[in-house]
Recover the amino acids of this structure.
């Protein structure tokens, strides 16, 4: 799906469910009004905020950027395994270890 298709479908979805999204309930204990579907509204706000970044990999200035975060997840998994193996390090040593880990993996896509 392209960015424009996503935006179009998302806008249509918001229009269709507008009354549900705006529905409010009154608390029995405090008497205050609040949105009934707070978690839905939170997700929508997050989507609205992050939408400009969702399709970054499609832009010409980001050619070659992967469309998933699998590689970085794998690198962090390896880092965690190595840090757990050396769990007795103090904070200074951990920082040096992490710095060295990323320097060793910089530029080498086959580092595991």
């Amino acid at each position: 799906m392209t960015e424009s298709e996503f935006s179009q479908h998302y806008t249509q979805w918001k229009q269709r469910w507008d009354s549900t999204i705006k529905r409010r309930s009154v608390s029995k204990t405090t008497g205050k009004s609040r949105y009934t579907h707070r978690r839905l509204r939170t997700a929508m706000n997050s989507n609205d905020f992050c939408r400009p970044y969702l399709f970054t990999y499609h832009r010409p200035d980001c050619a070659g950027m992967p469309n998933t975060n699998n590689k970085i997840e794998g690198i962090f998994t390896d880092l965690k395994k190595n840090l757990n193996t050396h769990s007795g390090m103090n904070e200074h040593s951990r920082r040096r270890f992490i710095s060295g880990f990323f320097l060793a993996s910089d530029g080498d896509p086959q580092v595991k």
User: Anything to note?
Assistant: The chain has a mean pLDDT of 88. The CA atoms of residues 93 and 99 lie 10 Å apart. The chain has two domains: 3-62, 70-105. The radius of gyration is 22 Å.
